[in-house]
Amino acid sequence: MEITIPDDCGNSPRKKFLVEFNRAFAEGDPEFVLDHVNDDIVWDMVGGKKLSGKAEMRKEMEAMMPGKASAMVLYSLITHGREAACNGEFHYPDGEKIAFCDIYTFTKTTGNTLKRITSYATSL
Q: Hey, how many other C-beta atoms are within 10 angstroms of the C-beta on 122?
């Protein structure tokens, strides 16, 4: 998979994590994603569903992943304390493109466990 990320992603452990977290989504790897969320994760897909817990998240991820992306482009990653945001695009071999912006809330100011994700996404 071709990956394009901002130049400053290497200077922050949280930004590195978010690149890997989004790579797991792009590659259809729910295990990596679920290993990095709280048991009571809340995933709010704005304009769509609001899920609670790992079981609901797994079911949704398996249903929504059309396969492995051929490219992932991350335009910006912003981190501060327990909050972070990332926007970008996933490109799939069939020509489908998904643009997204995710807002993340971590359980603590350190570590890589998420307790909430708010997602904005649209097909291009």
A: 10
pTM over 0.85: yes
pLDDT digits (tens, 9 = 90+) for 72-123: 999 999 999 999 999 999 999 999 999 999 999 999 999 999 999 999 999 9
* Longest CA span, the chain: 39
The residue length of the chain stands at 124
CB 102 within 8 A of CB 82: no
- Please name the residues in contact with 103: beta carbons below 8 A apart, sequence gap of 6 or more: 83, 84, 85, 117, 118, 119
105, containing H or E segment: strand 97-106
User: In terms of Cα–Cα distance, which of 102, 97, 98, 100 is closest to 78?
Assistant: 102
Neighbours of 106 (CB within 10 A): 21
SS3 of 30, please? helix
